[in-house]
Amino acid sequence: MTALPPGTAPGTPADGALGAENGVAEVAEEAVKADGADASADTPQGAGEVAEDSAPAAEGEDPAQPDDGPVEEGAAHEGAGGQAAEGATRTEDGGPELSEAAAELAAQRELRARIEQRKAEKEGPVEAGTKLSGQAADLLAAVRAVESGEKSGSAFFAAAPAPRRPAPTTAAAPVRTQVPQPARAAAGPEALAAVRAVLTEGGAPDSLAPQVTDALGEQAADALRADPWQLLGVPGVRPEQADGFARALLGAGCGPDDPRRAAALVGWVLERASARGHTALTIEAVKAALAERSVPEPDEAVQHAITEGVVLVFQDGVAALDGEESVPDEEPDDEDAPPSAPVEVLLGLDRYALAEESLADGLARLANAPVKDDGSDWADAAASAPSPSAAELIRAVAGSGLVTHSGGDAARAESAAVVGAAHALGLRAAAAAHSRDGRRRLAEAVGPERAFTVAALLGAEGPGRDEDGALALDVLVVQDAPQLDVESAAMLVESLPDGCRLVLGGDPQVLGSAGAGQVFADVLAARAFPHVASRTPDPGPIGELVSGIGAGELGQVDAPGKEVVIVVVRDAGEAVHRCVQLVADSVPRAIGVPTEQTQVITVGHGGSAGTRALNTALKQRLNPGPGRFAGFDAGDRVAYAEAPGRTAVGVVVSAGPDGLHLDCGGEEVVVPKERVGASLRHGWAVTAHQAAGTRWPAAVVVLPGDAAQGLDRAWVYTAFGRAERHLSVVHGVDQALPRAVAEGVAPARTTRLTPLLKGLLRTPESE
After folding, report:
1. HSE value, Cβ hemisphere, 13 Å, CA-based, for 519
2. Most CB within 10 Å of its CB: which of 107, 388, 672, 711?
3. How far apart are CA 342 and CA 737, in angstroms?
4. What is the pTM of this model?
5. In 470-611, which ranges are E strands?
């Protein structure tokens, strides 16, 4: 691969990039023959508009900065509870000794019990502007001492945590535990009427009543009167809206220093951070975000939120209780030794804390559980594997309950080979992917009866359950593991029986999950499980181009079959026009890929070349109509948000009393009428996050000039990698594209899974 010359954009006439000498530029020339009007305005919008409700922009946002728009509804499913089970060891007096995970969860339960006790002891609501005292003031002082480095981080704990012991590799597996998550019943008409009355009194739209009762329960009206800022618990409500609501209800008693406001804002900051993938935030980041929201005393606001149980405090993955000091685990022998660096203190919400702890315990259970055979029967399967990497993966699975596997799209065949080998040995084996398209490709490799989506395994589909409620499986391969959020991953692992082998596989360079957490990256970072890195490269010019992007290089590739084309544009209006030309005419005629198999991918929904503008232009050209079915017509391509973070692209077939009927890759899907407005968009153009886990024969990636700030290496890698046979890049970002590939590392997510796993399992760092 030849690197691009410095100072030039890929595909410009000066560099002849990406195969122009072999006739690839012919497609670009076809795209510019038409002299019709642009499909949208020529004047580009600001980069912030392109990033509107776009996941890339949201992930890159500093949690301390004010947001530019309402956060879309949460990106992870509720309910990934679970608690650590008791270990198999005994104390000297014969009593049971808790495992380290159980001890941590016991500490969490103790913290929550103390919080509830403090709440019960309160005689009345907290007065606005009151100061902290007593135990709360002591805890604030302890936190400040840790941050300043004046005291050891261990002084933040109520009791020194017991030193962790490496988990024995041959010990009996802990008992699998699962905490049921009961669904909240729909609020009755009286509760809805009461909430509507409160909302109207506070100047808020009464149409929010269903969302309010979903978030706050049957007693939502009373809760809002007692604490109007609880309105921030409703997805999409912004702090200024909650402030206006509170002023209308409280009058002169409402102020920016109200402790209720501070506590609600702390929870809101962390919920907003979870939409960007964080399961926790540093205490400094939370205080900075509060300062942006005009909270007078961020230190006291954080402390009040801790005292009220809105958030939990963590240090190196371990819960920090009240403010009681403890002696450090080990005093330095050398008095002249430099003091240790201040320990990072994290704040997190209860739901994500429990999910990460449950997931860590579940992964340790699978890794430590003895597998159901010694692996000798797998030798023949490894010998007949389709590739050396597949053979290596099969051998690793034979001897371990948990294996990680990384590689590009070609590596999916290797993990599929594990399912085939296990099935041939008489084991109950299945594989799961993130998207419907991923399941379709899995079904071609392992058979439809053994291919599922992760959501299907957690729902009504799947191989069935045993008498304990666990999935009836001996081997489970999970592809697209980077798309797993921490809550769904915890639910999945809790559903696996003892002795089940689990393979977590995927491409670590693609965009991460839409929900909180970075499960695959954290598991790899722990270095606690056998890992197989595929040596099978993705084929063809597109595979070569994408591999170079993963290494930080945007280079030239030979494309004798017109596999890669660059179309340079001057502005967003021209980008829309060229995109429509490529999809409707040039790619079908010059490449041979029909329009219905070509997918447009862009950076965000808003802006003059976002999904909205592109879908408007593409519908007008490809399927004009009045929008008979709630804005859609038969034949429209749509993007259906089945759940937060999971999008299926399909085609509208018809409408009926039960809703809108779609064809999603050969599967019939019915979208209920009440969900059409909230879960359907036109889908000729989607974002890279929506496209993750799916591939198309041809992809057109649109990069207008105002999209530069939304680009990073993971975005480019994911978007370009969605194409199987042909990739067209409508390029107007000049040097921002090679700069994003070379330097644009996605913002790191703050999570706790890696230290939890390192504490539970023997890792190279602990030996």
Report:
1. 34
2. 711
3. 38
4. 0.75
5. 475-478, 501-506, 531-533, 555-556, 564-568, 598-602
